[in-house]
Design goal:
The complex is a heterodimer of chains A (318) and B (241). Chain A is of the alpha/beta class. Chain A is 36% helix and 27% strand. Chain A has 12 helices and 14 strands. Chain B has 11 helices and no strands. Chain B starts with a helix and ends with a helix. Classes of the chains: A alpha/beta (318), B mainly alpha (241). The interface between A and B is medium-sized, with 25 and 22 residues.
Chain lengths: 318, 241
Protein backbone atom coordinates (compact mmCIF):
# COMPACT_ATOMS: atom_id res chain seq x y z
CA UNK A 1 0.00 0.00 0.00
CA UNK A 2 1.23 3.53 -0.87
CA UNK A 3 2.22 5.83 1.95
CA UNK A 4 0.16 8.98 2.29
CA UNK A 5 2.34 10.48 5.03
CA UNK A 6 5.95 9.61 5.76
CA UNK A 7 7.61 11.34 8.68
CA UNK A 8 11.24 10.76 9.62
CA UNK A 9 13.15 12.17 12.57
CA UNK A 10 10.85 15.15 13.02
CA UNK A 11 12.06 17.67 15.61
CA UNK A 12 10.68 21.06 16.64
CA UNK A 13 12.39 23.39 19.08
CA UNK A 14 10.96 26.66 20.35
CA UNK A 15 14.15 28.23 21.67
CA UNK A 16 15.06 25.93 24.58
CA UNK A 17 11.74 24.03 24.58
CA UNK A 18 11.66 20.74 22.71
CA UNK A 19 8.05 20.49 21.50
CA UNK A 20 8.55 17.46 19.25
CA UNK A 21 11.49 15.18 19.77
CA UNK A 22 12.61 13.00 16.89
CA UNK A 23 9.35 11.32 15.91
CA UNK A 24 8.90 9.04 12.91
CA UNK A 25 5.76 7.37 11.59
CA UNK A 26 3.98 6.42 8.37
CA UNK A 27 0.33 6.70 7.44
CA UNK A 28 -0.99 4.46 4.69
CA UNK A 29 -3.34 5.72 2.00
CA UNK A 30 -6.99 5.44 3.02
CA UNK A 31 -6.17 5.00 6.70
CA UNK A 32 -7.59 6.94 9.65
CA UNK A 33 -4.56 7.64 11.79
CA UNK A 34 -5.05 9.09 15.26
CA UNK A 35 -2.58 11.14 17.27
CA UNK A 36 -3.52 10.71 20.89
CA UNK A 37 -1.97 12.56 23.77
CA UNK A 38 -2.47 15.03 26.60
CA UNK A 39 -2.18 18.80 26.37
CA UNK A 40 1.30 19.98 25.46
CA UNK A 41 2.24 16.56 24.12
CA UNK A 42 3.12 17.99 20.70
CA UNK A 43 0.00 17.00 18.71
CA UNK A 44 -0.80 20.44 17.31
CA UNK A 45 2.88 21.26 16.74
CA UNK A 46 3.14 18.05 14.71
CA UNK A 47 0.02 18.80 12.66
CA UNK A 48 1.31 22.35 11.99
CA UNK A 49 4.56 20.93 10.66
CA UNK A 50 2.76 18.30 8.58
CA UNK A 51 0.58 20.96 6.95
CA UNK A 52 3.43 23.39 6.25
CA UNK A 53 2.36 26.03 8.78
CA UNK A 54 5.50 25.62 10.81
CA UNK A 55 8.98 24.60 9.68
CA UNK A 56 10.56 21.64 11.45
CA UNK A 57 13.87 22.16 13.24
CA UNK A 58 14.96 18.82 11.78
CA UNK A 59 13.50 15.83 9.97
CA UNK A 60 11.55 15.24 6.78
CA UNK A 61 7.87 15.12 5.89
CA UNK A 62 6.54 13.59 2.68
CA UNK A 63 2.90 13.79 1.68
CA UNK A 64 2.22 11.33 -1.14
CA UNK A 65 5.89 11.61 -2.02
CA UNK A 66 5.98 15.43 -2.04
CA UNK A 67 7.82 17.69 0.40
CA UNK A 68 5.30 20.01 2.05
CA UNK A 69 7.89 22.74 2.62
CA UNK A 70 9.30 22.91 -0.87
CA UNK A 71 6.60 21.66 -3.23
CA UNK A 72 3.50 23.82 -3.48
CA UNK A 73 1.64 20.90 -5.14
CA UNK A 74 1.64 19.16 -1.76
CA UNK A 75 -0.66 21.89 -0.37
CA UNK A 76 -3.24 21.07 -3.03
CA UNK A 77 -3.34 17.47 -1.83
CA UNK A 78 -4.29 18.31 1.73
CA UNK A 79 -7.29 19.72 3.53
CA UNK A 80 -6.79 21.09 7.02
CA UNK A 81 -9.28 21.61 9.82
CA UNK A 82 -7.64 23.48 12.70
CA UNK A 83 -8.84 23.18 16.28
CA UNK A 84 -10.67 26.54 16.04
CA UNK A 85 -13.33 26.91 13.35
CA UNK A 86 -11.71 29.76 11.45
CA UNK A 87 -13.83 30.76 8.49
CA UNK A 88 -14.98 34.32 7.84
CA UNK A 89 -17.79 35.52 10.09
CA UNK A 90 -18.96 38.11 7.56
CA UNK A 91 -19.33 35.65 4.68
CA UNK A 92 -22.24 33.25 4.32
CA UNK A 93 -21.79 29.48 4.43
CA UNK A 94 -21.83 29.31 0.62
CA UNK A 95 -19.53 32.33 0.17
CA UNK A 96 -16.98 30.77 2.53
CA UNK A 97 -16.99 27.56 0.50
CA UNK A 98 -16.66 29.51 -2.77
CA UNK A 99 -13.82 31.59 -1.38
CA UNK A 100 -11.87 28.50 -0.33
CA UNK A 101 -12.59 26.86 -3.69
CA UNK A 102 -11.29 29.92 -5.55
CA UNK A 103 -8.19 30.03 -3.39
CA UNK A 104 -7.39 26.43 -4.37
CA UNK A 105 -8.14 27.09 -8.05
CA UNK A 106 -11.24 24.88 -8.28
CA UNK A 107 -12.99 25.79 -11.59
CA UNK A 108 -16.27 27.70 -11.14
CA UNK A 109 -18.60 24.94 -12.36
CA UNK A 110 -16.94 22.31 -10.19
CA UNK A 111 -16.80 24.73 -7.26
CA UNK A 112 -20.57 25.26 -7.33
CA UNK A 113 -21.24 21.53 -7.67
CA UNK A 114 -18.90 20.61 -4.84
CA UNK A 115 -20.17 23.34 -2.53
CA UNK A 116 -23.72 22.09 -2.98
CA UNK A 117 -22.66 18.48 -2.38
CA UNK A 118 -20.77 19.44 0.77
CA UNK A 119 -23.65 21.48 2.16
CA UNK A 120 -25.82 18.42 1.63
CA UNK A 121 -23.28 16.04 3.20
CA UNK A 122 -23.11 18.22 6.32
CA UNK A 123 -26.85 18.95 6.29
CA UNK A 124 -26.28 22.68 5.93
CA UNK A 125 -28.37 23.38 2.80
CA UNK A 126 -30.83 25.50 4.74
CA UNK A 127 -28.00 27.57 6.23
CA UNK A 128 -26.31 28.25 2.88
CA UNK A 129 -27.09 32.00 2.96
CA UNK A 130 -26.57 32.45 6.68
CA UNK A 131 -23.44 34.30 7.87
CA UNK A 132 -20.80 31.99 9.34
CA UNK A 133 -20.68 34.13 12.50
CA UNK A 134 -24.33 33.38 13.22
CA UNK A 135 -24.11 29.58 12.94
CA UNK A 136 -24.11 27.28 15.97
CA UNK A 137 -20.80 25.82 17.13
CA UNK A 138 -21.56 22.42 15.61
CA UNK A 139 -22.54 23.96 12.29
CA UNK A 140 -19.39 26.12 12.28
CA UNK A 141 -17.32 22.99 12.82
CA UNK A 142 -19.14 21.15 10.05
CA UNK A 143 -18.69 24.06 7.63
CA UNK A 144 -14.99 24.33 8.52
CA UNK A 145 -14.57 20.67 7.61
CA UNK A 146 -16.61 21.21 4.43
CA UNK A 147 -14.31 24.13 3.49
CA UNK A 148 -11.29 21.86 3.91
CA UNK A 149 -12.88 19.41 1.48
CA UNK A 150 -13.87 21.86 -1.28
CA UNK A 151 -10.79 21.07 -3.41
CA UNK A 152 -11.23 17.33 -2.92
CA UNK A 153 -7.99 16.69 -1.01
CA UNK A 154 -6.35 13.29 -0.78
CA UNK A 155 -5.37 13.75 2.86
CA UNK A 156 -7.50 15.43 5.52
CA UNK A 157 -5.91 16.75 8.72
CA UNK A 158 -8.30 17.22 11.62
CA UNK A 159 -7.09 18.87 14.81
CA UNK A 160 -9.44 17.91 17.65
CA UNK A 161 -12.48 17.69 15.34
CA UNK A 162 -15.17 17.23 17.98
CA UNK A 163 -13.92 19.52 20.77
CA UNK A 164 -16.74 21.62 22.20
CA UNK A 165 -19.51 19.86 20.27
CA UNK A 166 -22.61 18.38 21.84
CA UNK A 167 -23.08 14.61 21.72
CA UNK A 168 -25.31 14.62 18.63
CA UNK A 169 -23.12 17.00 16.64
CA UNK A 170 -19.99 15.01 17.58
CA UNK A 171 -21.67 11.73 16.60
CA UNK A 172 -22.79 13.12 13.27
CA UNK A 173 -19.27 14.46 12.55
CA UNK A 174 -17.70 11.11 13.37
CA UNK A 175 -20.09 9.50 10.92
CA UNK A 176 -18.98 11.90 8.18
CA UNK A 177 -15.32 11.20 8.98
CA UNK A 178 -16.00 7.48 8.60
CA UNK A 179 -17.81 8.08 5.30
CA UNK A 180 -14.86 10.07 3.97
CA UNK A 181 -12.58 7.23 4.94
CA UNK A 182 -14.79 4.70 3.11
CA UNK A 183 -14.42 6.91 0.03
CA UNK A 184 -10.65 6.38 0.24
CA UNK A 185 -9.53 9.63 1.87
CA UNK A 186 -6.57 9.43 4.23
CA UNK A 187 -7.40 11.03 7.55
CA UNK A 188 -4.94 12.22 10.17
CA UNK A 189 -6.63 13.33 13.36
CA UNK A 190 -5.49 14.49 16.73
CA UNK A 191 -7.74 13.90 19.68
CA UNK A 192 -7.71 13.68 23.41
CA UNK A 193 -10.95 11.67 23.45
CA UNK A 194 -9.91 8.08 23.97
CA UNK A 195 -13.31 6.69 22.89
CA UNK A 196 -13.16 8.78 19.72
CA UNK A 197 -9.76 7.38 18.81
CA UNK A 198 -11.00 3.88 19.58
CA UNK A 199 -14.13 4.34 17.48
CA UNK A 200 -12.60 6.00 14.43
CA UNK A 201 -8.96 5.14 14.02
CA UNK A 202 -7.37 2.28 12.13
CA UNK A 203 -4.11 3.04 13.90
CA UNK A 204 -3.12 5.26 16.79
CA UNK A 205 0.14 6.86 17.87
CA UNK A 206 0.35 7.87 21.50
CA UNK A 207 2.45 10.99 21.98
CA UNK A 208 3.62 12.26 25.34
CA UNK A 209 6.09 15.11 25.92
CA UNK A 210 6.94 15.32 22.23
CA UNK A 211 7.79 11.65 21.82
CA UNK A 212 5.77 8.81 20.32
CA UNK A 213 5.50 6.16 22.99
CA UNK A 214 3.78 3.55 20.87
CA UNK A 215 1.92 3.06 17.61
CA UNK A 216 -0.62 0.38 16.81
CA UNK A 217 -4.24 -0.33 16.08
CA UNK A 218 -6.67 0.17 18.98
CA UNK A 219 -7.02 -3.60 19.44
CA UNK A 220 -3.25 -4.06 19.70
CA UNK A 221 -3.02 -1.28 22.24
CA UNK A 222 -5.83 -2.78 24.28
CA UNK A 223 -4.11 -6.13 24.00
CA UNK A 224 -1.07 -4.60 25.70
CA UNK A 225 -3.29 -3.81 28.66
CA UNK A 226 -5.04 -7.20 28.50
CA UNK A 227 -1.80 -8.96 29.31
CA UNK A 228 -2.40 -7.83 32.80
CA UNK A 229 -5.78 -8.37 34.32
CA UNK A 230 -8.05 -5.47 35.23
CA UNK A 231 -10.60 -5.55 38.04
CA UNK A 232 -13.36 -3.21 39.06
CA UNK A 233 -14.06 -2.76 42.75
CA UNK A 234 -17.29 -1.30 44.05
CA UNK A 235 -16.92 -0.32 47.70
CA UNK A 236 -19.24 0.90 50.42
CA UNK A 237 -17.96 4.48 50.59
CA UNK A 238 -15.38 6.91 49.14
CA UNK A 239 -13.23 4.87 46.78
CA UNK A 240 -10.75 7.69 46.13
CA UNK A 241 -8.88 6.94 49.38
CA UNK A 242 -7.90 3.57 47.89
CA UNK A 243 -6.11 5.09 44.88
CA UNK A 244 -2.70 5.59 46.51
CA UNK A 245 -2.45 2.27 48.41
CA UNK A 246 -3.68 0.26 45.39
CA UNK A 247 -1.29 2.10 43.07
CA UNK A 248 1.56 1.12 45.38
CA UNK A 249 0.39 -2.48 45.41
CA UNK A 250 -0.27 -3.03 41.68
CA UNK A 251 2.25 -0.62 40.20
CA UNK A 252 -0.47 1.11 38.20
CA UNK A 253 -2.67 4.03 39.23
CA UNK A 254 -6.31 2.90 39.53
CA UNK A 255 -8.97 4.79 37.57
CA UNK A 256 -11.84 6.27 39.57
CA UNK A 257 -14.99 5.30 37.64
CA UNK A 258 -17.34 6.95 40.14
CA UNK A 259 -17.21 7.80 43.85
CA UNK A 260 -17.63 4.14 44.83
CA UNK A 261 -16.00 2.32 41.93
CA UNK A 262 -12.37 1.91 40.96
CA UNK A 263 -10.80 0.13 38.00
CA UNK A 264 -7.47 -1.39 38.89
CA UNK A 265 -5.17 -2.51 36.07
CA UNK A 266 -2.68 -5.15 37.09
CA UNK A 267 -4.95 -6.45 39.86
CA UNK A 268 -4.30 -10.18 39.46
CA UNK A 269 -5.93 -13.03 41.36
CA UNK A 270 -2.65 -13.47 43.29
CA UNK A 271 -2.95 -9.94 44.60
CA UNK A 272 -6.60 -10.25 45.53
CA UNK A 273 -5.96 -11.14 49.16
CA UNK A 274 -3.57 -8.18 49.55
CA UNK A 275 -6.05 -5.86 47.86
CA UNK A 276 -8.83 -6.94 50.22
CA UNK A 277 -6.48 -6.25 53.15
CA UNK A 278 -5.69 -2.74 51.85
CA UNK A 279 -9.41 -2.07 51.39
CA UNK A 280 -10.16 -3.28 54.91
CA UNK A 281 -7.36 -1.14 56.38
CA UNK A 282 -8.90 1.88 54.63
CA UNK A 283 -12.10 1.21 56.52
CA UNK A 284 -14.32 0.43 53.55
CA UNK A 285 -16.26 -2.68 52.55
CA UNK A 286 -16.04 -4.38 49.17
CA UNK A 287 -19.48 -4.74 47.58
CA UNK A 288 -18.54 -6.15 44.14
CA UNK A 289 -15.40 -7.33 42.41
CA UNK A 290 -15.53 -7.83 38.63
CA UNK A 291 -12.78 -8.76 36.21
CA UNK A 292 -13.13 -6.48 33.22
CA UNK A 293 -11.94 -6.28 29.61
CA UNK A 294 -9.46 -3.42 29.35
CA UNK A 295 -10.52 -0.37 27.38
CA UNK A 296 -8.32 1.94 25.34
CA UNK A 297 -8.30 4.16 28.42
CA UNK A 298 -6.73 1.31 30.42
CA UNK A 299 -4.21 0.83 27.66
CA UNK A 300 -3.41 4.54 27.65
CA UNK A 301 -2.88 4.55 31.40
CA UNK A 302 -0.75 1.45 31.23
CA UNK A 303 1.35 2.70 28.33
CA UNK A 304 1.84 6.33 29.34
CA UNK A 305 1.72 6.00 33.09
CA UNK A 306 -0.56 9.05 33.08
CA UNK A 307 -3.94 9.42 34.71
CA UNK A 308 -6.78 9.48 32.17
CA UNK A 309 -8.01 12.68 33.85
CA UNK A 310 -5.18 14.59 32.13
CA UNK A 311 -6.98 13.89 28.87
CA UNK A 312 -10.42 14.99 29.99
CA UNK A 313 -9.28 18.01 31.98
CA UNK A 314 -6.95 19.55 29.46
CA UNK A 315 -9.42 20.96 26.93
CA UNK A 316 -12.23 21.57 29.29
CA UNK A 317 -11.59 25.24 29.45
CA UNK A 318 -11.44 25.73 25.72
CA UNK B 1 3.08 31.91 -10.10
CA UNK B 2 -0.49 31.50 -11.35
CA UNK B 3 -1.53 30.14 -7.95
CA UNK B 4 -0.04 33.21 -6.25
CA UNK B 5 -1.73 35.65 -8.63
CA UNK B 6 -5.07 33.92 -8.13
CA UNK B 7 -4.50 33.97 -4.38
CA UNK B 8 -3.73 37.71 -4.42
CA UNK B 9 -6.90 38.41 -6.39
CA UNK B 10 -9.08 36.24 -4.08
CA UNK B 11 -7.72 38.03 -0.99
CA UNK B 12 -8.29 41.48 -2.50
CA UNK B 13 -11.87 40.65 -3.53
CA UNK B 14 -12.67 39.12 -0.14
CA UNK B 15 -11.14 41.99 1.85
CA UNK B 16 -12.98 44.60 -0.22
CA UNK B 17 -16.26 42.84 0.45
CA UNK B 18 -15.76 42.02 4.11
CA UNK B 19 -13.81 45.06 5.34
CA UNK B 20 -13.21 48.00 3.05
CA UNK B 21 -16.61 48.62 1.52
CA UNK B 22 -18.21 48.78 4.96
CA UNK B 23 -19.15 51.89 6.97
CA UNK B 24 -16.19 51.93 9.43
CA UNK B 25 -13.56 51.88 6.68
CA UNK B 26 -15.47 54.30 4.45
CA UNK B 27 -16.00 56.73 7.31
CA UNK B 28 -12.38 56.64 8.48
CA UNK B 29 -11.00 56.74 4.93
CA UNK B 30 -13.36 59.36 3.56
CA UNK B 31 -15.11 61.35 6.25
CA UNK B 32 -11.92 62.33 8.04
CA UNK B 33 -10.14 63.91 5.02
CA UNK B 34 -13.42 65.44 3.77
CA UNK B 35 -13.98 67.07 7.17
CA UNK B 36 -10.47 68.51 7.09
CA UNK B 37 -11.03 69.73 3.53
CA UNK B 38 -14.26 71.47 4.48
CA UNK B 39 -12.72 72.99 7.59
CA UNK B 40 -9.86 74.55 5.61
CA UNK B 41 -12.14 75.56 2.77
CA UNK B 42 -14.56 77.39 5.06
CA UNK B 43 -11.69 79.11 6.85
CA UNK B 44 -10.09 80.48 3.71
CA UNK B 45 -11.78 79.68 0.36
CA UNK B 46 -9.42 81.95 -1.62
CA UNK B 47 -6.17 80.11 -0.78
CA UNK B 48 -7.78 76.72 -0.57
CA UNK B 49 -6.54 75.45 -3.96
CA UNK B 50 -3.01 75.30 -2.61
CA UNK B 51 -4.10 72.77 0.00
CA UNK B 52 -5.75 70.32 -2.40
CA UNK B 53 -2.60 68.26 -3.25
CA UNK B 54 -1.95 67.78 0.46
CA UNK B 55 -5.54 66.80 1.13
CA UNK B 56 -5.50 64.23 -1.68
CA UNK B 57 -2.26 62.80 -0.27
CA UNK B 58 -3.86 62.69 3.18
CA UNK B 59 -6.93 60.93 1.80
CA UNK B 60 -4.63 58.34 0.19
CA UNK B 61 -2.84 57.83 3.51
CA UNK B 62 -5.93 57.52 5.69
CA UNK B 63 -7.98 55.39 3.32
CA UNK B 64 -5.25 52.82 2.57
CA UNK B 65 -4.58 52.32 6.24
CA UNK B 66 -8.24 52.56 7.33
CA UNK B 67 -8.84 48.84 7.85
CA UNK B 68 -5.35 47.35 7.96
CA UNK B 69 -5.43 46.68 11.68
CA UNK B 70 -8.57 44.63 11.15
CA UNK B 71 -7.38 43.02 7.93
CA UNK B 72 -4.13 41.83 9.54
CA UNK B 73 -4.31 41.76 13.35
CA UNK B 74 -7.94 40.69 13.65
CA UNK B 75 -7.40 37.93 11.09
CA UNK B 76 -4.25 36.78 12.85
CA UNK B 77 -6.24 36.49 16.07
CA UNK B 78 -9.17 34.66 14.44
CA UNK B 79 -6.84 32.27 12.63
CA UNK B 80 -8.25 33.19 9.23
CA UNK B 81 -4.85 34.46 8.09
CA UNK B 82 -3.43 31.06 8.99
CA UNK B 83 -6.09 29.47 6.79
CA UNK B 84 -4.74 31.46 3.82
CA UNK B 85 -1.31 30.08 4.54
CA UNK B 86 -2.61 26.54 4.17
CA UNK B 87 -3.62 27.29 0.59
CA UNK B 88 -1.16 26.80 -2.27
CA UNK B 89 0.10 30.40 -2.15
CA UNK B 90 3.19 31.86 -0.54
CA UNK B 91 3.60 34.35 2.30
CA UNK B 92 4.52 37.25 -0.02
CA UNK B 93 1.35 36.69 -2.09
CA UNK B 94 -0.82 36.75 1.05
CA UNK B 95 0.74 40.01 2.22
CA UNK B 96 0.52 41.55 -1.25
CA UNK B 97 -3.17 40.62 -1.35
CA UNK B 98 -3.67 42.45 1.94
CA UNK B 99 -1.58 45.46 0.82
CA UNK B 100 -3.30 45.74 -2.56
CA UNK B 101 -6.76 45.54 -0.95
CA UNK B 102 -5.91 48.67 1.06
CA UNK B 103 -4.30 50.32 -1.97
CA UNK B 104 -7.37 49.74 -4.16
CA UNK B 105 -9.65 51.19 -1.51
CA UNK B 106 -7.29 54.17 -1.25
CA UNK B 107 -7.34 54.51 -5.03
CA UNK B 108 -11.13 54.72 -5.08
CA UNK B 109 -11.28 57.26 -2.24
CA UNK B 110 -8.41 59.48 -3.48
CA UNK B 111 -9.77 59.49 -7.02
CA UNK B 112 -13.22 60.52 -5.77
CA UNK B 113 -11.64 63.42 -3.82
CA UNK B 114 -9.44 64.47 -6.76
CA UNK B 115 -12.29 64.31 -9.29
CA UNK B 116 -14.59 66.26 -6.94
CA UNK B 117 -11.93 68.93 -6.52
CA UNK B 118 -11.40 69.06 -10.30
CA UNK B 119 -15.13 69.37 -10.98
CA UNK B 120 -16.16 71.81 -8.28
CA UNK B 121 -13.05 73.64 -7.07
CA UNK B 122 -11.33 74.35 -10.39
CA UNK B 123 -8.40 72.07 -9.51
CA UNK B 124 -6.45 71.37 -12.70
CA UNK B 125 -4.27 68.33 -12.88
CA UNK B 126 -2.37 66.28 -15.44
CA UNK B 127 -4.25 63.03 -14.89
CA UNK B 128 -1.66 60.50 -16.20
CA UNK B 129 0.98 62.14 -14.00
CA UNK B 130 -1.50 62.28 -11.13
CA UNK B 131 -1.87 58.49 -11.25
CA UNK B 132 1.90 58.14 -11.61
CA UNK B 133 2.14 59.68 -8.12
CA UNK B 134 -1.03 58.16 -6.68
CA UNK B 135 -0.23 54.50 -7.34
CA UNK B 136 3.21 54.36 -5.65
CA UNK B 137 1.85 56.53 -2.81
CA UNK B 138 -0.90 53.99 -2.15
CA UNK B 139 1.56 51.10 -2.26
CA UNK B 140 3.96 52.85 0.12
CA UNK B 141 1.23 53.83 2.62
CA UNK B 142 -0.48 50.45 2.57
CA UNK B 143 2.80 48.58 3.04
CA UNK B 144 3.83 50.93 5.85
CA UNK B 145 0.47 50.22 7.53
CA UNK B 146 0.94 46.46 7.17
CA UNK B 147 4.46 46.62 8.58
CA UNK B 148 3.31 48.57 11.64
CA UNK B 149 0.36 46.23 12.20
CA UNK B 150 2.68 43.23 12.08
CA UNK B 151 4.87 44.72 14.79
CA UNK B 152 2.10 44.24 17.37
CA UNK B 153 -0.51 41.62 18.23
CA UNK B 154 -3.81 43.29 19.01
CA UNK B 155 -6.11 45.42 16.84
CA UNK B 156 -6.15 48.31 19.32
CA UNK B 157 -2.35 48.28 19.54
CA UNK B 158 -2.14 48.41 15.77
CA UNK B 159 -4.63 51.29 15.57
CA UNK B 160 -2.65 53.23 18.15
CA UNK B 161 0.65 52.54 16.45
CA UNK B 162 -0.78 53.52 13.06
CA UNK B 163 -2.07 56.84 14.38
CA UNK B 164 1.38 57.98 15.42
CA UNK B 165 3.00 58.16 11.94
CA UNK B 166 -0.30 59.19 10.34
CA UNK B 167 -0.70 62.30 12.45
CA UNK B 168 3.02 63.10 12.60
CA UNK B 169 3.10 62.97 8.79
CA UNK B 170 0.02 65.16 8.41
CA UNK B 171 1.82 67.93 10.33
CA UNK B 172 5.38 67.38 9.13
CA UNK B 173 4.93 66.51 5.46
CA UNK B 174 3.60 69.79 4.13
CA UNK B 175 -0.05 68.80 3.95
CA UNK B 176 -1.17 72.06 5.57
CA UNK B 177 1.96 74.06 6.36
CA UNK B 178 4.63 74.29 3.63
CA UNK B 179 7.83 72.44 4.48
CA UNK B 180 9.92 75.40 3.28
CA UNK B 181 8.63 77.48 6.21
CA UNK B 182 9.34 74.85 8.84
CA UNK B 183 12.43 74.87 11.10
CA UNK B 184 15.51 73.30 9.52
CA UNK B 185 15.38 70.17 11.70
CA UNK B 186 11.75 69.49 10.69
CA UNK B 187 12.64 70.05 7.04
CA UNK B 188 15.28 67.31 7.32
CA UNK B 189 12.84 65.06 9.20
CA UNK B 190 10.22 65.55 6.46
CA UNK B 191 12.56 63.93 3.92
CA UNK B 192 12.21 60.62 5.74
CA UNK B 193 8.41 60.59 5.45
CA UNK B 194 6.66 59.06 2.43
CA UNK B 195 3.74 61.52 2.68
CA UNK B 196 6.19 64.36 1.91
CA UNK B 197 6.88 62.88 -1.54
CA UNK B 198 3.17 62.24 -2.17
CA UNK B 199 2.35 65.90 -1.35
CA UNK B 200 5.26 67.18 -3.45
CA UNK B 201 4.29 64.81 -6.25
CA UNK B 202 0.65 65.93 -6.30
CA UNK B 203 1.78 69.55 -6.27
CA UNK B 204 4.09 68.91 -9.20
CA UNK B 205 1.32 67.40 -11.33
CA UNK B 206 -1.20 70.16 -10.58
CA UNK B 207 -1.24 73.73 -11.83
CA UNK B 208 0.06 75.02 -8.55
CA UNK B 209 2.98 72.69 -9.14
CA UNK B 210 6.56 72.89 -8.02
CA UNK B 211 9.45 72.57 -10.39
CA UNK B 212 10.38 69.09 -9.19
CA UNK B 213 9.92 66.01 -11.37
CA UNK B 214 6.90 63.78 -10.64
CA UNK B 215 8.86 60.72 -11.76
CA UNK B 216 11.46 61.34 -9.07
CA UNK B 217 8.79 61.45 -6.35
CA UNK B 218 7.17 58.33 -7.79
CA UNK B 219 10.53 56.54 -7.70
CA UNK B 220 11.16 57.57 -4.07
CA UNK B 221 7.67 56.36 -3.10
CA UNK B 222 8.37 53.02 -4.80
CA UNK B 223 11.59 52.92 -2.79
CA UNK B 224 9.55 53.32 0.43
CA UNK B 225 7.23 50.51 -0.75
CA UNK B 226 10.19 48.16 -1.21
CA UNK B 227 11.76 49.28 2.06
CA UNK B 228 8.57 48.43 3.99
CA UNK B 229 7.65 45.27 2.06
CA UNK B 230 10.56 42.96 2.87
CA UNK B 231 10.57 43.38 6.66
CA UNK B 232 6.76 43.02 6.58
CA UNK B 233 7.03 39.64 4.79
CA UNK B 234 9.66 38.56 7.32
CA UNK B 235 7.50 39.64 10.27
CA UNK B 236 4.47 37.79 8.89
CA UNK B 237 6.59 34.65 8.56
CA UNK B 238 7.70 35.00 12.19
CA UNK B 239 4.07 35.09 13.35
CA UNK B 240 3.72 31.47 12.23
CA UNK B 241 6.90 30.11 13.77
Amino acid sequence: MTLAIKVSGLVKHYESLVAVNNISFDVKEGEIFGFLGPNGAGKTTTIRMLTGLSRPTAGTIELLGLNINSDVKAKKLIGVVPEASNLYDDLTALENLFFMGKLYGVPKKERCKRAEALLELFRLQEKRNQLFGTLSRGMKRALTIAAALIHNPKILFLDEPTVGLDVMAARSLRKVIQELSYQGMTIFLTTHYLEEADMLCDRIAIIVKGEIITTGNPEDLKEMATKEQAMEFTVSNDASKLIEPLAALTGSRPILINSNTLRCIGATNDLLAHICKVVQEAGVKVIHINTVRPTLEDAFVRITGLSPTVMSAEKGGK
Amino acid sequence: MLDNLRGIWCIIAKDMKTYYLKPPAVSWGMVFPVTWTLAFYLRNPVDFKGLIPGLIAMTALFSTTAAEAVVINFELRLGTLERLLLAPINMAAILLGKILGGAIFGFIMSTIVAVTCALFLNFHVNWPSFFLILLPSLLAFSTMGSLLCLLVREVFEAQTLLNLPRFVMVFASGVVYPIEFMPRSLQIFAHFLPLTYAVKGFKSVSTIGTTSLPALHAAILLGFFTLFLFPAIKLLGKKFQ
